[in-house]
Specification:
The structure is a single chain. Helix 2 runs parallel beside helix 12, helix 3 (40-61) packs across helix 4 (68-76) and helix 8 packs across helix 12. This protein folds into two domains: 8-279, Fido-like domain (Fic-like fold, Orthogonal Bundle), CATH 1.10.3290; 286-345, Winged helix-like DNA-binding domain superfamily/Winged helix DNA-binding domain (Arc Repressor Mutant, subunit A). The longest helix has 24 residues, at 256-279. It has helices spanning 8-11, 16-36, 40-61, 68-76, 84-102, 110-120, 158-174, 180-194, 201-215, 226-232, 234-245, 256-279, 286-297, 304-310, 316-328, and strands spanning 137-139, 147-150, 302-303, 332-335, 342-345. By secondary structure, the protein is mainly alpha-helical. The chain is 60% helix and 5% strand.
Length: 347
C-alpha cells in the first residue's frame, strides 16, 4: 500500500533502463498472439513444462522438494500426494490451474489472496487465514549470526493493510496512474512487505504476479515458468527486495531496484518464449526438439535424470527414444550401463 499512497506512482521518475524494458516487453506482448496461433502441440508442450517447473521452483525456493520421479505424475498426471511436501506441490498446481482458467474472473482482493493461500497450504491449520503473530524476515549468512532484515506489517494491522493494498491497486489500474507493469511490480512489492500470512507468502506473491500479469494481457507465464526464472536469479531477487523494502514503512523506500528486477524477469520470459516457439517450427516433434535443445545446453556429460529435470513435460520413454535416435546418428554416446549411465555429445 505504501507504494501507492499519495502520488508516489505518478511522480516516479523512470530511468532509461526501465523505459527500454517496458518498450521491449510491450513489443513482445504485441507478437504474443502471432506465436500462440502457431503449432498447438508446441504450445501444449510449453504449457505442460511451465506447469511442472512452476510448481517445482516456487516450492523449492521455500525449501519444499520432492523426487523427480514423483513431480511429473503429481502435476500432470493422476497421482495423489503421499506426504506434506507432495501436498504442497499438488496444491500449487491447483492454484496455477485456477489462474490459467479463471484469471479474468478473479478480482485481486483479499478474498482471492486467501483463496490462493488456502489452495497451496491446505495441510496447515491456518490455511487461508491472516497471520496471528508477528513475523520477521531473517537473513542467514554462512559464518554469521542470523539478523532481522525486515519487519513486516504487524499482525493486528494486516487485514486493513491488505484491504488498502487491493483498493489502491485497483484504483491505480482503473485511473491508469502508471504503466501496468509498474503498477503490478508495486503490488507485489507491497504484498511482500505486508507479509500477511504466517507461511507461504513467497508462493502467493508469485501466483499474484502471474494473475496480475494475465489481467493486463501479459500471458507469457502460461508458457514459460516465471517461478523458475526467479529461482535461477534468487540472489538478485533477494537483493532487489532488500534494497526496495528499506524505509518502506515510512514511504521512504526506493522501488526502482525491485522494478528493474521484476521487468528483467518478464523480459527474459518473453525472450525465452519467442526463442522456443521460433526454433520449433514443426507441430510434430516438439517434445523431441525440447530434448535435443536440453542436450545441446549441457557443457559436459549428463544423465537420464538430468534430462528429465531439464524436460519435465517429456516422458522418460520419449527421452530414451530421442537418445536412441541420436546414438544411432552418432551424435551422442553412452558411457556406462543402466539408468545412471553418463551420456555425452559427439562432434
Amino acid at each position: 500500500m505504501m507504494s501507492f499512497r499519495g502520488d508516489r506512482l505518478v511522480s516516479l521518475a523512470l530511468p532509461t533502463a526501465v523505459v527500454w524494458f517496458i518498450d521491449e516487453i510491450a513489443e513482445a506482448k504485441g507478437r504474443q498472439a502471432i506465436y500462440t496461433r502457431q503449432a498447438p502441440q508446441v504450445l501444449k508442450a510449453l504449457r505442460d513444462m511451465a506447469l511442472v517447473q512452476s510448481a517445482e521452483s516456487s516450492n523449492r525456493i521455500e525449501g519444499v522438494t520432492i523426487g523427480p520421479e514423483r513431480l511429473r505424475p503429481l502435476v500432470l498426471g493422476q497421482a495423489r500426494p503421499r506426504d506434506r511436501s507432495e501436498r504442497e506441490i499438488f496444491g500449487y498446481r491447483h492454484a496455477l490451474n485456477l489462474i490459467h482458467t479463471n484469471a479474468e474472473s478473479l478480482s485481486i482482493d483479499p478474498g482471492a489472496l486467501r483463496q490462493l493461500h488456502r489452495t497451496i497450504q491446505e495441510d496447515s491449520g491456518d490455511a487461508g487465514h491472516w497471520k496471528k503473530a508477528e513475523n520477521e524476515i531473517i537473513e542467514l549468512k554462512a559464518g554469521e549470526a542470523p539478523r532481522v532484515r525486515f519487519r513486516p506489517v504487524a499482525a493486528a494491522a494486516t487485514p486493513a493493510a491488505v484491504d488498502e493494498l487491493c483498493l489502491v491497486y485497483r484504483d491505480a489500474v482503473n485511473e491508469r496512474r502508471a504503466p501496468p507493469l509498474v503498477t503490478v511490480a508495486a503490488l507485489v512489492l507491497d504484498f511482500l512487505c505486508i507479509h500477511p500470512f504466517r507461511d507461504g507468502n513467497g508462493r502467493v506473491s508469485r501466483l499474484l504476479t502471474l494473475l496480475a500479469l494475465y489481467q493486463h494481457g501479459y500471458e507469457v507465464g502460461r508458457y514459460i515458468s516465471l517461478e523458475r526464472l526467479v529461482e535461477e536469479t534468487r540472489e538478485e531477487y533477494y537483493e532487489a527486495l532488500k534494497r526496495s523494502s528499506e524505509g518502506w514503512h515510512s514511504g521512504a523506500n526506493d522501488p526502482l531496484p525491485w522494478l528493474l528486477y521484476f521487468l528483467s524477469v518478464v523480459r527474459r520470459a518473453y525472450r525465452e518464449f519467442e526463442s522456443r516457439v521460433g526454433n520449433v517450427r514443426s507441430p510434430r516433434g516438439a517434445k523431441r526438439a525440447f530434448v535435443r535443445a536440453a542436450i545441446d545446453s549441457f557443457t559436459g556429460s549428463f544423465t537420464l535424470a538430468d534430462l528429465e529435470r531439464a524436460c519435465p513435460a517429456v516422458s522418460r520413454d520419449m527421452i530414451r527414444r530421442v537418445l536412441a535416435e541420436l546414438r544411432q546418428q552418432k551424435a551422442v554416446e553412452c558411457v556406462g550401463r543402466g539408468p545412471g549411465a553418463s551420456w555425452r555429445r559427439l562432434q
